[in-house]
UniProtKB/TrEMBL annotation:
Keyword set includes Hydrolase: yes
Protein name: GPN-loop GTPase 3
Residue segments, region Disordered: 205-232
GO molecular function term, any single one: GTP binding
Keywords for this protein: GTP-binding, Hydrolase, Nucleotide-binding
Organism: Hypocrea atroviridis (strain ATCC 20476 / IMI 206040) (Trichoderma atroviride)
UniProt-listed InterPro entries: Gpn, Gpn3, P-loop_NTPase
Length: 300
């Protein structure tokens, strides 16, 4: 029996929990079942009470107080503790049928998606551990207001890409909180962010106004010792680096974004359709009995 899930990821405040809540409401309205897991050991309040909450196992507060760690160290400690107690997940998920969409609400610490190997191990366990075998989609949210600062947008896009390459499961990128930029960004301009292209940095209005007020860039001092050059990356070098990164994203066509407005039922439904496609949810529902197919063949 297959299980289906979506892991909702992204930086702090990107709107993950709000999206999880909207998704659960949408599923329920469409007579589908959700199993909501909170894996953020610091999360306090929820619109829908989680069916499973990491805080039952360990909370960030416990980790910080008992082990004397800060918030980031505490989070890593909680995830390491989770990895040592994976039967807690297996026991809760084992009996779920294929009707359920398992929704996993992740913490927002960016380290988790970039350079710490815990998440790939967790995803491998969920998708490939034999007993669970969840068909999982990764959904990465980036706040749409980032499009106003293009360098920030590309930095966010890099973290989405990092998560995508690290996890090796079907991946959906989402620009969340679209309602916040509806009136600021023209539709035509927005299209360029949905499939980011490098020219976005060249005609960045923020950059143009900076050049007008500060004047043209000073070229970097080529005679400076290598250490100093590396540390003082500013002006032209910084822009060249940004452009190279944006070029990389563009030339591999690795990132596309879907738009999300949680206040719009169709928008939430649209993201759900993409998730369903990625995990082939509908194909697994009401499978034909072998006998049905046989009867059909005989009638021919
Ligand atoms: N305008 C607007 N605000 C939103 C939207 N989604 C979330 N927010 C607000 O953004 C803030 C953060 O939302 P959360 O859903 O808690 O974000 P999160 O990614 O779960 O945050 P962390 O748990 O800190 O990682 C809250 O104040 C939400 O009300 C949206 O689509 N539009």
């Amino acid at each position: 029996m297959s299980k289906f899930g979506a892991m909702i990821m992204g930086p702090a405040g990107a709107g993950k929990s709000t999206f999880c809540a909207a998704l659960i409401t949408h599923l329920n309205l469409n007579r589908r079942s959700a199993f909501y897991i909170n894996l953020d050991p610091a999360a306090e309040s929820f619109e829908h009470t989680p069916d499973l909450d990491i805080k039952e196992l360990i909370s960030l507060k416990d980790a910080m107080e008992e082990v004397g760690l800060g918030p980031n160290g505490g989070l890593i400690y909680c995830f390491e503790f989770l990895m040592e107690n994976l039967d807690w997940l297996t026991e809760a998920l084992d009996s779920l049928t294929e009707e359920y969409l398992i929704i996993i609400d992740m913490p927002g610490q960016i380290e988790l998606y970039t350079h710490i190997p815990i998440l790939p191990t967790l995803v491998k366990f969920l998708t490939n551990s034999g007993s669970l075998d969840i068909r999982l989609a990764a959904v990465y949210l980036l706040e749409a207001t980032f499009v106003v600062d293009r360098a920030k947008f590309f930095a966010g896009t890099l973290s989405a890409m990092s998560a995508m390459l690290m996890l090796e499961v079907p991946h959906i990128n989402v620009l969340s909180k679209m309602d916040l930029i509806k009136d600021q960004v023209k539709k035509k301009d927005l299209k360029r962010f949905l499939t980011p292209d490098v020219a976005l940095l060249e005609d960045d209005p923020l950059e143009r106004s900076r050049r007008i007020t500060e004047g043209p860039d000073e070229e970097d001092d080529e005679s400076a010792p290598p250490d100093e050059k590396a540390q003082v990356m500013k002006g032209a070098s910084f822009r060249r680096l940004n452009k190279a990164v944006a070029g990389l994203i563009e030339s591999f066509s690795m990132i596309n974004y879907l738009k999300l407005d949680v206040t719009d039922e169709d928008s939430v439904g649209g993201i759900l359709s993409h998730i369903d496609d990625c995990i082939q949810y509908h194909e697994a529902q009401d499978p034909k009995e072998p006998d049905d197919e046989q009867e059909y063949d005989e009638a021919d």
